[in-house]
Amino acid sequence: MKTYHADVTRDGKFWLIRVREIDRSTQALRYKDVAAMASDLIEIMEDLHNDEYDLHLNVHLPPSVKDHQARAEVLRAEAQRKQAEAAAENRAAVQELLALGLSQREAGDVLGVSFQRVSQLAKSS
């Protein structure tokens, strides 16, 4: 099965679509129509049906958008690390209170969480 690659860029109000393998272009008004327009172009120019080829879209974004995406990924990873640290601190707090002789219900009341949550934290450590 042949694979076609469509390079997609934004130009004003339109998405420009260039299919490399056939060296032809088309356009779409909305991004949701890009794959269909590329497929139509391939099928017309190559006399194929949609089950006879694969289409890969390569969307070219402005560098500033890529920068925002990269920063968002860094922040997501940092948030995951911080969430794991917070969970570890919650577990440590529960363990300390239980070691002081508090019941799970008392520990929950003191920490402002349900005793079920205290039970979960106690079991996960």
UniProtKB/TrEMBL annotation:
Coiled-coil positions: 65-97
Superkingdom of origin organism: Bacteria
Sorted UniProt keywords: Coiled coil
The protein's name in its UniProt record: Antitoxin HicB
